[in-house]
User: Fold this.
Amino acid sequence: MAGLIIIIVLILTAVFASVIAPYSYRDQNLDQALLSPSRDHLFGTDQFGRDLFSRIIYGSRISIAVAFLPVIVSVGIGVLLGAISGYYGGWIDLLIMRMADIMFAFPSLLFAIAIIFAIGRGILSLFIALALVDWAGDARLIRGQVLSIRSKEYIEAARAIGMSDRRIILRHVLPNCLAPIIVTASMSIPGVILTEASLSFIGLGVQPPTPSWGAILNDGQRFIGNAPWMALFPGVAIFLTVLAYNFLGDGLRDAMDPFLKN
Assistant:
């Protein structure tokens, strides 16, 4: 519940960022550069005199977008390939699982960097990279679920009455995999957020002047000696967001796993 509350607050912050933020994230005032936290600037200012609190508020929009759009695409790819692999078996299963093994062989961050270098920088490239690096684990999980479901009596009955494979998968197999799909989606979000922050930290994520917590953290590490608040506050924002999604994922797993219920 604590994680859910933090996530709801984060979503509301992202939606109403223009109302909550006291300043524009673009406004520069070099006369107020590197000001410490005060009543006028709650989180201080950066090297360009921009209000850090406002930039972190607007940066939450990137984290929310990353938390949902790439994860939805990634989980969708994993569920589709995992269901096909587990249901049909044979050479189809072998081909998809070998593709998954290839994905496991590459660190997700390096693979995302390679994709961004191949298609260019930008927020669309970032979303594509994040959506393509994390489907293998979802596919393997759903494959295992489908392998245990496809031999059930109701699946045999559906085949006996002439129901098509497509309809069996959509109407009978995937609905019985819904709980692990929801849990794996929620557990994938923290890793995606950290990957986005890492890419933005090294300059391959969201491009300036659009604020991103990873990019703000990168700016802060250069001034950590005389302006530690520049690195502290975006780091805390990333930490709390990832922790909240981990809490939520653990809670959903405990609620939906029948083996954990008394």
Summary: The chain has twelve helices and no strands. The chain has one domain: 2-8+43-260. Residues 2-8+43-260 form a domain with the MetI-like fold fold (CATH 1.10.3720.10). The mean pLDDT is 86.
